[in-house]
Amino acid sequence: MIVSTKGRYALRVMMYLALREDQSHTPLKEIAESEGISQKYLESIMTLLSKGGLVDAVHGKGGGYRLNREPEGYTVGSILKLTEGSLAPVSCTTQGPSACARSECCRLGSMWEKLDRMIDDFFEGITLADLLTDEGPLQ
Length: 139
Fold this sequence. Notes:
This protein has 6 helices and 2 strands; from the N terminus they run H-H-H-E-E-H-H-H. By secondary structure, the chain is mainly α.
């Protein structure tokens, strides 16, 4: 599994917003400049985060973005799943049209499913609040 720039930038932006104590709406331009991300690319990420219900957006003068819950209410997994679509290490563990046709007879399937669960449990076990402190689960 490789996390794309979209996923990494989304995490950086969510951390940036989490660090804002006043929780006012932060303009896109300010976030882009602070994080060194192209404003156009960031706009697509923020649209995704907004439509996914992770941030509130206000358009126009005085507008911008802010978290719509406390940092404890966001997991790294939820942010990455929204931006990446899946955290599956291999396509074998995905559901739907891209699911593996050999899943019924494959002897490796249980190993891939276990890895998939480990990755999911790992990222779902880390919140933005954990990343804001030195005492989170990564210590």
